[in-house]
Amino acid sequence: MVETVDAVVVGAGVVGLAVARDLARAGHEVLVLEAESAVGTQTSSHNSEVIHAGIYYPTGSRKASACVSGRELLYRYCADRGVPHRRLGKIIVATAHDQIGRLDEIASHAAANGVTDLQKLDASGLRGLEPHLVGVAGLLSPSTGIVDSHGLMRALRADAEAAGAGVALGSRVVSGSVREGSPMTLDVADAGSLRCRALINCAGLGAWDLAGSLDGFPADRIPARRLAKGNYYSLSAGPVPFRRLIYPVPTDGGLGVHLTLDMGGAARFGPDVEWTDQVDYRVDPDRADRFYAEIRRYWPELPDHALAPAYAGVRPKLSGPGEPAADFLLQGPTEHGMPGLVNMFGIESPGLTSCLALARDVREMLGDDTLG
Asked: Which residues lie closer than 8 Å to 33 by C-beta, 6 or more apart?
């Protein structure tokens, strides 16, 4: 007999684990299928590990709302579960007087998103907080922080399993059927088939392939996939003299070369944006050359030859070069007409910050009637 479960979550990244935890804690039978041999091996472990405040995202977008609500859910969750994190704060620094007006625009936009704790800084205020930071003005974001993404995923998985969810690693979904009037079925490599009342596609970079493998799913509802590689470089010349994250004023549609810190205090610079058509985590040492001038606008003391390749991530995006940044796409029955199916496309930054809020949204989209 083919096994039937309430809900199958495909993908054990941070969002998939958060969804599984939420559904299992609501009393539903949940099975997580992960193709790799460990959880969170792709996007969830190749990012800056920043807890974002929600400053930049378009007002009214799901990214903005999920980030603002999700960051507080995440801070509380990490505190309750002992997940390593720090509310370090972030400084957005203007290095020229003609950028000060842009800071005012950023503060107004952030307030419209519900980020009301930004603090304006003049040059002396910047020096008071970060003596080695060079700039004429800035904004302090006290709500920005960092988190141990692996510790977070371990906690989410433990919670999900404690609530009765199963996590099956090395379980690659090869095909399935979502034809109306028939039970949803999935075919798992080397494991056979199973049925489910709800299917949540949290496969990240593989979400497009999974949707395309589902017999009965309308192909015209699968959006185009764009891949943007982000390269990070570490500092090989000792520690940085900063205690907070440092971001330049955004220009040309990007956030600029910014400085983040990990839980051990080590500095990372990036990510940049390298459009690509394949998932490749190799970091080209020569790309660091273009970082030096950008970083020295706010940290002139950066030594020569101080940047070394660290790691890279590949963002699953819905918009390409020169296009406005796309929102998260949570595609449920209202959008595609398939009862019980939720596709999650384009879950890039701030996906980690938003994971608990997105999990809540998925549960609400499905409703108790679907899950039984």
From this structure: 8, 9, 10, 11, 12, 168, 171, 172, 173, 186, 188
Spatial contact of 323 and 315, defined as CB atoms under 8 Å apart: no
pLDDT single digits (tens) 312-326:
999 999 999 989 999
CA 261 to chain centre: 17
Predicted pLDDT of residue 182: 87
Residues for the chain: how many in total?
372
Q: Are 133 and 80 in contact (CB under 8 A)?
A: no
Alpha helices in 114-223, H assignment, sequence order: 123-129, 149-162, 207-212
- Burial (CB count <10 Å: 0-12, 13-18, 19+), residue 5: middle
Residue 370: pLDDT band by 50, 70, 90 thresholds?
confident
Select from 284, 277, 367 the least CA-distant residue to 317.
277
pLDDT tens digits for range 129-178? 999 999 999 999 999 999 999 999 999 999 999 999 999 999 999 999 99
The Cα–Cα gap between 24 and 16 comes to 12
- Which pTM was predicted? 0.97
What is the pLDDT, as a whole number, of residue 25? 97
Reduced to 3 states (helix: H, G, I; strand: E, B; else coil), residue 44 is helix
Task: In whole angstroms, give the CA distance from residue 23 to residue 359.
Answer: 8
Cα 62 from Cα 332, distance rounded (Å): 14
Cα 364 to Cα 372: distance, rounded to the nearest angstrom: 13
Nearest to 244 by CA among 327, 121, 115: 121
Burial 149-182 (b: 16+ CB within 10 A, else e): bbbbbbbbbebbbebebebeeebbbeebbbeeee
The answer to whether the CB of 104 falls within 8 A of the CB of 260 is no
For residue 278, what is the DSSP state? S
